[in-house]
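As described in the Methods, two query proteins were run sequentially through the folding procedure within a single session, without resetting any intermediate state between them. The first query and its resulting structure tokens are shown here.
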Amino acid sequence: MMTGGWSSHLGEAIVGRAPALGQRNFRRYFYGQICSVLGTFIQAVALSWLVYRLTGSPALLGLTAFLSQAPQLVVAPLAGVMIDRFDRRRLMIGLQCIFAAQALTLAALVFFDAVEVWHLLALAALLGVLNSFDLPTRQSLLLYLVDDKSTLANAVALNAAVVHSGRLLGPPIAGLLLAFVPESVCFLINALSYLGPISAVLAIRAEIPRQRNLKTGSALLEVLAFIRGNPSARGALLAVAMVNVTASSYVVLMPVFAKDVFAGSAQALGWLLGMGGAGALTASLYLSTRARAELNQNFMIGSCAVAAVGMIGFSLAGYCGSLGLGMPMVGLIGAGIGATNIVGNTRLQHLAPEGLRGRVISIFGSTRFGFDALGGLFAGALAAGIGVLPVTAGLGLLLLPACLGLSRTLKPCTQPR
């Protein structure tokens, strides 16, 4: 009795703060993502460490990150048409299976000592194409997993919290694993982790509309016309593009910071990346308790500025050779980027008309990860020539004045369609 009463009160308290978890479909989806996201970040750290271990090249780190995200610039808008046209659940299950096959291929290449740089680049490009479909498919599902549409902002923030929890826990776990086992074990763990979302999606029971006769050309023109005619949507996409093309490059440069600037190992890399995840998780948990009206233009300007300050502070920590100072600065970067992306996504989810949601969220994914890829490629190439510290400081200094320009573009979010 007492145990049941205690657990009941705890459950009510959790649902009171996170109402989306009180809804069956979203709850199943939420738990299914947890193990998958953890595996994804374990693989990401192992892959970046493997590339740097084999090549010692910051430029190749940037190229690998670019290939794993850049396809979204082109493929994601086209993916949005397919998402609106086909069954999202079947599409998502198929994607998880291909993700698992990609991870198993990496594991086999490393295990049999057959891996070459071109293998890593090709598999990174495949990952980029898969991500072009995966992110908008997941995000566009959220609206149909909550019966109470007023909890959508909470669902978006909780979904982001899962991702950022993976960013917090995955890198340190990967760092510990890499101290004792080869990268192939990390890739195998990621392959197995996709069983979680596959099981969750199979258990979802929801009516999800499709537009079977959607034509690709007219569908793309329709979503571009919506964005062109909606200042709030344009402003949100601009903020997302701006923070990702500058601040998100810290992830690409992190193996250089860990190994060369702070004279550390894979464990140092894991802790640094984990701090970025901690910052982003803190931002997502905070935003999960906020009303949608609070996610306004001033909040997005402030979150971009936090990322800029973190970049500048992290470069100063590098000049001082202080890992202890660098870790909280990485936390600021992660919080600023995470908050900007979550608020941008939430605003777009509410602004998008019903029939355009898959395509609008695909444009968000294209902007979020495409500009991240461009920034990482640019930062990696520059760092190979002039070093990571001036590049990191310069990107932070570039982002600060850009934050001021946002106030002229961002408008208050309108009511959902």
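Immediately afterward, the second query was submitted; its sequence and tokens are:
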Amino acid sequence: MESNHEISGRRKENSIAILPVVRVASFGVFLDGGTGNTADDILLHNAQQTRPVKEGERVEVFLYHDPHHRLTASMNLPKLAIGDIGYAKVLSTTRFGAFVDVGTERGIFLPFSEMTERVQEGQSIWIKLYEDKTGRLAVTMKVDKEMIRIARPIRNRKKGDTLTGTIYNLTSKGAFLITKDRELGFIYKDDIVGVLQIGAEVTGRITYIREDGHANVSMRAQKEEAIHSDMEILIACMEKHQGVLPYTDKSQPEDIRQNLHLSKAAFKRAVGHLLKLQKIVEKNGQFKLKN
């Protein structure tokens, strides 16, 4: 049975192929370019060989364009099989998408249409390797179904224990994470501290273990502990604004979250405690530090 990588006709960049060695040179070997013209034969340089190859042998290679836009081969294949997911670094971004390191000589393309959020160079993200309609390799950040497929239920943990994982998806409701043990967790928007991006490693506290074995997680401390840090955030904010808090009970939750990284409920609790402790006063609907 022939491999899916057996191809005929003109070869394509960013694809895997099994090609015959048609001639040998001191600096490498040439593979059949598929056009019948020896000028189109593809160089497999000695530096891109993982073992010595001989004339007449069929070699599995990754095809890519070199800096001179010549089709070139390498025996350094993707570390992921097609359909597999992995945690990979963004090598560069372009106006069309980004390129991600999956172990080949050149990065694999991540189209904008396959991003769940914009990425930046150096960011590590969860991706799935796939073959597009033209037969070229590409990656996608849409990995939710694959994460559920590989997930394991949480065991030997209980409510209150910490859970560390990397973010693989962000939604309007919160963030999804996966641990090294393939356990899944979800952090509701109100339980997120700071600004998260896909690929970030976070540690939180398990607040609930669901029937499917996945966990709800909070990055916030227990209310008794969190209230003190929340009050400090408000005091620091007032000190930056001449002793006046620029937010009130009527402020929009998103404004409070974006600027103070607090939920509206946490904001109101902290204000209430500061009033009770007589560290602030309310005047004309505004909160001010007490002189």
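The longest helix spans residues 223-240. We note this only descriptively and draw no conclusion about the first query from it.
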